[in-house]
């Protein structure tokens, strides 16, 4: 199955869960991203891989117009329903590919992408598209899961994520995000890492992980080198396995 088909299959099945996910709707990464971007009422914004529209709808109250694009029709239906439910009229949701954005050059003052790039087959191509559609002086904001810089820690969390969600391709480390953004012709103005303590089972539930895959994930974590587990914050609390979820948040200017 091609990568984009994997994404459509995974998120088509789970669309409703993402609509009602408090983390996606109100996560700290969203409020921080908006704080750093400082959207203004005269701006036009684009939210790439918008999912069920939480980031786009948060932007809608701060800008003149926002467009959300996604390749999964079920997600877009949820996003449109949320916009209607909230009475939001300046948000438009369209089908579109992050690696081939259906827009002309220099259309947007702000481009965002939240919790999605680890599903992209070609992040450099996505970033090139972001640079193309941004106006001069425009801002790009990204929030996505990230990995430890050292390979031993990166390998464990990547195995965990790939078993959890077969549409996961690769999460970039903070330093690699900086490198790839700059290579696309954008200047990184700010980069930080947020951490969040998560229960493993709850995290697996959101993705609809089967019992067989869940057992394999626990086996891999238990057999991992202690250093790798510590780098990712795996620990038990009252008999429940938890880990440190890391997200990179970066803002760049064109």
Q: How helix-rich are the residues, as a percent range?
A: 40-55%
- Which regions have little confidence, pLDDT < 50, spanning 5+ residues? none
Distance between the termini: 35 Å
Mean pLDDT: 92
Structural classification: alpha/beta
CATH superfamily membership, which one?
Vaccinia Virus protein VP39
User: How many structural domains can be distinguished in the coordinates?
Assistant: 1
Structural shape = globular
What is the top-level CATH class? Alpha Beta
Q: What share of residues are in beta strands?
A: 25-35%
Radius of gyration over C-alpha positions, nearest whole angstrom: 18 Å
Number of E-type strands: 8
CATH architecture: 3-Layer(aba) Sandwich
Say what the CATH topology is. Rossmann fold
Helix/strand order: HHHEHEHEEHEHHEHHHEE
Count of runs of 4 or more consecutive helical residues:
11
Sheet with the most strands, sense and barrel status: 8 strands, mixed
Question: Which terms would index this structure?
Answer:
254 residues; alpha/beta; Rossmann fold; eight-stranded mixed sheet; globular
């Amino acid at each position: 199955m091609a990568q984009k088909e994997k994404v459509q299959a995974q998120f088509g099945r789970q669309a409703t869960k993402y609509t009602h996910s408090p983390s996606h709707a109100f996560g700290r990464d969203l409020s921080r991203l908006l704080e750093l971007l400082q959207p203004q009422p005269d701006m036009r914004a684009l939210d790439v891989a918008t999912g069920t529209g939480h980031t786009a709808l948060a932007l809608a109250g701060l800008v003149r117009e926002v467009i959300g694009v996604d390749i999964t029709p079920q997600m877009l239906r949820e996003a449109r329903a949320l916009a209607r439910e909230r009475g939001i009229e300046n948000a438009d949701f369209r089908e579109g590919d992050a690696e081939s954005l259906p827009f002309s050059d220099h259309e947007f003052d702000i481009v965002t992408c939240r919790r999605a790039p680890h599903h992209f087959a070609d992040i450099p191509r996505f970033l090139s598209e972001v640079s193309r559609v941004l106006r001069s002086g425009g801002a790009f904001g990204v929030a996505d899961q990230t990995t430890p810089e050292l390979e031993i820690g990166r390998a464990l969390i990547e195995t965990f994520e790939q078993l959890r969600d077969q549409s996961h391709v690769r999460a970039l480390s903070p330093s690699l995000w900086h490198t790839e953004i700059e290579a696309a012709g954008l200047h990184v103005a700010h980069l930080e890492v947020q951490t969040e303590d998560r229960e493993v089972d709850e995290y697996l539930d959101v993705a609809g992980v089967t019992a067989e895959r869940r057992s394999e994930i626990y086996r891999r974590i238990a057999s991992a080198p202690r250093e790798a587990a510590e780098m990712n914050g795996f620990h038990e609390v009252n008999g429940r396995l938890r880990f440190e979820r890391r997200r990179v948040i970066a803002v760049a200017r064109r």
